[in-house]
Specification:
The complex is a heterodimer of chains A (772) and B (144).
Chain A (H helix, E strand, L loop, with lengths): L7 H4 L2 H31 L4 H20 L3 H18 L7 H24 L8 H12 L79 H26 L4 H24 L1 E3 L1 H4 L2 H12 L3 E6 L4 E3 H22 L3 H6 L6 E10 L2 E8 L6 H10 L5 H5 L3 H5 L23 H10 L3 E7 L3 E9 L4 E9 L2 E6 L3 E7 L7 E4 L2 E6 L2 E7 H4 L14 E8 L2 E7 L1 E9 L13 E6 L5 E5 L1 H33 L1 E7 L2 E6 L5 E6 L3 E4 L2 E6 L2 E7 H4 L10 E9 L2 E6 L2 E7 L12 E7 L2 E6 L1 H8 L20
Parallel strand pairs in A: 2-4, 9-18, 13-15, 20-29, 24-26
Antiparallel strand pairs in A: 1-3, 4-5, 5-7, 6-7, 8-9, 8-16, 10-14, 11-12, 12-13, 14-15, 17-18, 19-20, 19-27, 21-25, 22-23, 23-24, 25-26, 28-29
Chain B lengths: L2 E9 L2 E6 L3 E7 L12 E7 L2 E7 H4 L11 E7 L4 E6 L1 E9 L13 H5 E6 L4 E5 L1 H5 L6
Parallel strand pairs in B: 2-10, 5-7
Antiparallel strand pairs in B: 1-2, 1-8, 3-6, 4-5, 6-7, 9-10
The chains are: A alpha+beta (772), B mainly beta (144).
Chain lengths: 772, 144
């Protein structure tokens, strides 16, 4: 007697069908474990309605799915079981010993059928008629049918004692409540093809749960303890490796090597046990997005990429709220209404993409929308309006920095406060939450194109990559995560320490970086070793949403350190995030970068900020506006504002190709229009060298090259400008006693590429340059 | 009548005792990591078999001026509910067994921060031993 073959296979692919069956099996096994428990408990307390309801639901679910999958026997058995349960649930019948027996037998038969299905995808020859008769008798209150010798239980696999049933399989420690949707049923249902179908599975009911039995539930506390122990081991390993480095004992070194490897592997393994895919977090988002977009009239398509990316469970919990906030914010403020999108020539349906991936030992989660983008001008204006910064301060910042103002407390750009987001709490909370776990948040945005929020999350909390620095003879640990770059400051280099109203600052690529001297921040006596000609180092750190430089005496090394909690006596000090033990066994303090920023900035923040802004404005002028690149165009000297120079290049002559009447060169995967300034300025260049020096200007992803005959110098533009006397020039000036003509960049660029989208030169250049 | 065993040690020429059960161990250690900006009685941090232990200078806790210690300092490590804390002392003494009836009230002449840390005074053969309240001694509330 063969089970009716599912016609479904005709229109489903076999694999699809197998997948569905496997999922059904796993889900059902899990629910059955709970069912056993519930039934036994019910026998003791037959009126526990919630248990009855939960048992009913489980059987009902199996019945529904087996009907759908055309498992006729399973459907019949669960159907009669359900009928009995319905009576019990509705109070028409009380669960007695006999009822419990019958129901447990139903469960056994269901199990046996599932095992058969798992083995060969079919229900097999099992005889279920006796059971059905028995259940019906129980429902109708008839005496139990006289069992034939072997009809009490279907003959083969359900040989487990049919009668006084509590020989129940011990349920898993904290099995989920039956009604919890088993949406997260282990995805790794390995054998879709059920290759071992040939084996006679009915002989070994014990192995029937091959699928579900491969995973074990483990107490989280135990995992935490293992993680702590591994942390200790990492420390010991570090010490051991350090100690044997110079021992010269080969046996010892080799053992230390092995210890090193094994420890790393163990650490990885233990960390993996605590990992959960980020899909746990994301599973709720489609609903959030749907509800929100419906309520505010947006059309949103949500795309999830990298849902299998795994994170430590404690971190998963920590990023839940920030992530949800960013998603809501993107729907509410990032994406435009369908009408606006159509007006802007976009698909009325906006796309919100969540992307998770690994990068440099961190997990990156991006929330990207293709909406209207964030306008730095708007952000800057709002910051000024809110009194967070002065107009000069904003003008001195680069566009990315301006964008990051949204992470300042009390900042909200929503033109209109809605009940969704934009209450002025939000982005700063997102940032605080992320930084609290050693992560970071940043954003990139192109006006009109969209915004990408980028969360960087460490893989684990317990072990961090750290930079070890030295100050006043002591070593301190900085989490690598917050270190942007390291700058060495020596007497002669351009990076000098300057003072603005007594507050130290450092010029870094035309920007002013406020400095915090670590030894002073830790209460040490003021010292200025750089004035004695000693080198100092500045670690550029990211804290509280803006950068500052931490001045240390030396930068020693990077190391993986295990974060130890601080003794209760030291928690109030506030500068330390914890302590750790370094490779040589000494204890070292882990600096709390946020607290350092806060403490130092509070001390002289107002004063320094105001002065720094003034100086920064000056610096911008000095560094970018009033410096000139002097080039040679045949025998003329032509100056180009340095702020308009993105790069200087030399192209081989043969690389310059002709397209129509224009010249172009292939450059970084782009076709770059080349304009010979000699042509523009009406000079004839007779030079024949192998290379063409060029000034490259880039903006908004476009570039042009202005070919010259030579690069001469970079000078400060101090002399007054004379009037323009030639085409393509905006004036002339005297530099080094020689007349130098000033190039009209706008004309030059337009001549090179008429389609070039020029930003407004008069105000600051806010054009977005794609970060590479 | 029951007896209590005390581990004794000297701080600023005064003999103190802690009930043996409260002392995890006693050891000499010489390298401490200073903790800038910490309260004055925090003598530093050190690594005790992989645990970071805070050492409290008992001198300062008792209101005495801090002294610069050279060489290894003696640590009496006290285990409290959730962490181990070390008390830096000048010298380690014997373990003495005392009958609890021998305790006398704290002398009125004892004043200052010390008074809060002392539970009883025991006159020994040659000198007076002050019994320390371990919990009070490792609590970080008062600053030195």
């Amino acid at each position: 007697m063969k089970a009716s073959t599912p016609d479904l296979e005709a229109w489903w692919s076999v694999e699809d069908f197998d997948d569905v069956v496997q999922e059904f099996l796993v889900e059902s096994y899990e629910n059955l474990d709970q069912l056993d428990q519930d039934l036994v408990a019910l026998e003791r307390d037959p009126t526990a309605r919630d248990r009855l309801a939960s048992v009913f639901r489980t059987i009902h679910t199996i019945k529904g799915t087996s009907g759908f999958l055309a498992f006729a026997k399973l459907e019949q058995v669960t159907h009669v079981g359900e009928s009995l349960l319905a009576r019990l649930r509705d109070g028409a019948q009380i669960l007695d010993r006999r009822g419990a027996d019958v129901l447990l037998r139903v469960v056994d038969v269901v199990r046996a059928l599932l095992a058969q299905i798992e083995a060969d995808g079919q229900e097999g020859e099992m005889d279920i008629r006796d059971l059905i008769v028995e259940v019906e008798a129980c429902i109708n209150g008839e005496p139990a049918p006289v069992p034939t010798a072997d009809s009490a239980a279907p003959a083969e696999p359900v040989a487990e004692a049919p009668a006084p049933a509590p020989v129940v399989e011990a349920p898993a420690v904290d099995a989920p409540a039956v009604d919890a949707p088993v949406a997260e049923a282990p995805a790794a249902v390995a054998q879709p093809g059920a290759p071992e179908a040939a084996a006679a599975p009915t002989e070994e009911p014990a192995s029937r749960r091959g699928v579900a039995d491969t995973s074990v539930r483990v107490d989280v506390d135990l995992l935490d303890k293992l993680m702590r122990l591994v942390g200790e081991l990492v420390l010991t390993r570090n010490q051991m490796v350090r100690a044997t480095e110079h021992s010269g004992d080969h046996t010892l070194s080799r053992a230390a090597q092995r210890l090193n490897l094994i420890t790393s592997e163990l650490q990885e393994g233990v960390m993996k046990t605590r990992m959960q895919p980020i899909s746990h977090l994301w599973s709720k988002l489609p609903r959030v997005v749907r509800d929100l977009s419906n309520s505010i009239g947006r059309q949103v398509r949500l795309e999830l990429e990298g849902a299998e990316t795994e994170l430590d469970r404690s971190l998963l919990e920590a990023v839940k709220d920030p992530l949800t906030h960013l998603v809501r914010n993107a729907v509410d403020h990032g994406l435009e209404s369908p009408a606006d999108r159509v007006k802007a020539g976009k698909n009325p349906e906006g796309t919100l993409t969540l992307r998770a991936y690994h990068e440099h030992g961190h997990v990156v989660v991006e929330v990207a929308d293709d909406g209207k983008g964030v306008d730095p001008k708007l952000i800057g204006a709002t910051a000024v309006k809110r009194g967070l910064l002065s107009a000069e301060q904003v003008a001195a910042m680069d566009p990315d920095e301006v964008l990051r103002l949204v992470f300042r407390p009390g900042f909200s750009t929503a033109a209109k406060v809605s009940n969704v987001s934009g209450r002025g709490v939000g982005m700063d909370v997102v940032r605080t939450n992320l930084e609290a776990i050693g992560g970071a948040v940043d954003l990139r945005s192109v006006v009109g194109k969209g915004t990408t929020w980028r969360l960087t999350i460490p893989l684990t909390l317990a072990i961090v990559q750290a930079l070890i620095v030295e100050s006043a003879g002591e070593r301190y640990v900085l989490p690598q995560m917050s270190v942007r770059e390291l700058v060495s400051v020596e007497g002669q280099t351009s990076a000098r320490i300057e003072y603005v109203s007594g507050a130290p600052v450092c010029r870094l690529r035309g920007r002013l970086l406020p400095l915090v001297r670590l030894n002073e921040a830790l209460g040490g006596a003021p010292e200025r070793p750089e004035e004695r000609g000693e080198a100092i180092y500045v670690a550029v750190l990211n804290g509280e949403g803006h950068e500052f430089g931490l001045v240390v005496d030396r930068v020693l090394t990077t190391e993986e350190v295990v974060v130890k909690p601080l003794a209760s006596h030291l928690k109030d000090v506030g500068c330390y995030a914890g302590a750790t033990i370094l490779g040589d066994g000494r204890v070292s303090l882990i600096l709390d970068v946020l607290a350092l920023a806060r403490n130092a900035h509070l001390g002289n923040a107002e004063r320094a900020a105001a002065a720094a802004a003034a100086l920064a404005a000056e610096a911008v002028k000095a560094e970018t506006r009033d410096r000139l690149l002097v080039t040679r165009v045949s025998d003329r000297r032509v100056a180009i504002p340095l702020s308009m120079v993105t790069r200087l290049e030399e192209f081989p002559v043969q690389a310059v190709e002709r397209v129509g009447s224009r010249e172009v060169v292939q450059y970084r995967g782009q076709i770059l229009p080349v304009l010979r300034l000699s042509g523009l300025l009406g000079s004839w260049s007779e030079e024949t060298s192998d290379t063409v020096p060029a000034v490259v200007y880039s903006s908004g992803g476009h570039s042009v090259a202005l070919a010259v005959d030579g690069i001469l110098d970079i000078v400060d533009d101090t002399a007054p400008h004379g009037p323009s006397d030639g085409d393509g020039l905006s004036g002339s000036t005297v530099i080094d006693d020689k007349v130098t003509e000033l190039l009209d960049m706008r004309r030059a660029i337009m001549a090179a590429d008429p389609d070039f989208q020029l930003p407004d030169f008069e105000t600051r250049d806010y054009s977005y340059v794609e970060a590479s | 009548m029951s007896t209590v065993r005390y581990a004794t040690f000297e701080v600023a020429d005064q003999l103190f005792g802690l009930e043996v059960g409260e002392v995890q161990e006693v050891l000499a250690f010489s390298e401490y990591t200073p903790v800038p900006l910490a309260p004055g009685h925090v003598g530093g941090l050190f690594n005790l078999r992989g645990q970071v232990i805070a050492a409290l200078d008992l001198r300062v806790r008792l209101g005495e001026p801090a002294v610069v210690r050279t060489g290894p300092a003696m640590n009496v490590i006290v285990r409290t509910d959730d962490e181990s804390v070390s008390l830096l002392v000048d010298r380690i003494g014997d373990v003495v067994e005392l009958e609890d009836t021998a305790a006398e009230p704290i002398p009125d002449t004892l004043s200052g921060p010390a008074r809060e840390l002392i539970t009883a005074a025991f006159p020994l053969a040659k000198r007076l031993m002050l019994a320390l309240d371990a919990r009070a001694a490792v609590r970080g509330s008062e600053t030195g």
